[in-house]
Amino acid sequence: MKGSDTPVVLIVEDEPDVAETYNLWLADEYEVRMAQSGDEGLAKLDDDVDVVLLDRMMPGLSGDEVLKRIRDRGLECRVAMVTAVEPDFDILEMGFDAYLCKPIRSEQLHDTVENLLERSEYDDLLQEYYSLVETQATLEATKSSTELADHEEYDRLQERIDEIRDDLGDALGGIEGDEDFIATLRGLSDGEE
């Protein structure tokens, strides 16, 4: 969630009844924007959008092309394809974050949006963790143990690293110990490449 406290969901759907149904399901919890075409969706997309619900088959600019343009622009939003198109091997190269086949239920849509928002928060936490660990490693390589022990900010850095490690460990299933934690993170980053 970037701009405001309320997450922003952009619905890009060419069938007005379907778009309005999604809007009704989500409007109580999220700020909802709606677009009826790929071009309109891209025009309404900015850094404040957290999740895009994207129909794959639309006249004009297809959902596949909209997704490609979103990724090309480097936006940090999560994208769920919500479509009647059954997935095939072509999805391997698409880069979406979730794929829902229509018809979908309210609970399924809510769960998907919530999971994508949690994943965004997890990614932010993981980035912060990597940054803090890098800072810690740099200080440990250049300062003596005595200098580190006497510095309050270094203590706060270590406390924050421990706090994030605990949060990420909980999210990853209660990983115990630094070695397990680091191995799990390495496995995640190797899997993403």
From TrEMBL:
It comes from the Archaea. The modification 4-aspartylphosphate is found at D55. SMART domains: REC. Residues 8-117 form the Response regulatory domain. Pfam families: HalX, Response_reg. Keywords: Phosphoprotein. InterPro entries: Bact_response_regulator, CheY-like_superfamily, HalX_domain, Sig_transdc_resp-reg_receiver. This is HalX domain-containing protein. It comes from Halosimplex aquaticum.
